[in-house]
Amino acid sequence: MVGRARPAGAALLALLALPAMRASAQTLTVGTDGDALKIRVVGLSFLKGDPITRLKDGRSVRVELAAMVLPGAGRPPAVTTRRIFALSYDLWEERFAVATVGVRSPQSVSHLAQAAAEAWCIEQLAIPLSALSSLGPPNKDMPFWVRLEYRILDSDSATDSPESAYTLQGLIDFLSRRRKADSSSSALEAGPFRARRGSSSQR
Amino acid sequence: MGSLLALGESMRTLGLLVTLLVATPQAATDQTLLVPEGTIITSARVTGFDVDRLSPGLRDAISGLAGTPLRKDRLEELAARLEAERPRYVAAVRAVMDDGQARVFFVMGRRDGPRRDDKDNINERYVVEQADISGVPEADVSQALLDDLRALIGQRLDSGEAERVRDRIERELPDYEVSRRIQRGSEVGRIRIVFEARKKEPPPWLRFEPLRSIWVYHSEQGGGAFVDANIGDRNIRVTPFFAIDHADDLVEEYSGGGLRFETRKLGTRRLGASFEWSRFKQDWRPATLDALALRSDIPSPYRRRSTITPLLKFAVTPDISIAGGVSISELDPLSPAIDSTMANAAVATIDFDRAWRDGSDATHRVTGNVGVRSGLRDLESDLTYTRYLGEASYRFDFGRHHVRAGGMAGRITGDAPLFERFTLGDSTTLRGWDKYDIAPAGGDRMVYSSVEYRYTGLALFLDVGSVWDANTERRARVSAGFGFHGGPAFLVVGFPLNTENLTAVLTLGLRIPRIGIRW
Question: Does the predicted interface ipTM exceed a cut of 0.90?
Answer without folding.
Answer: no
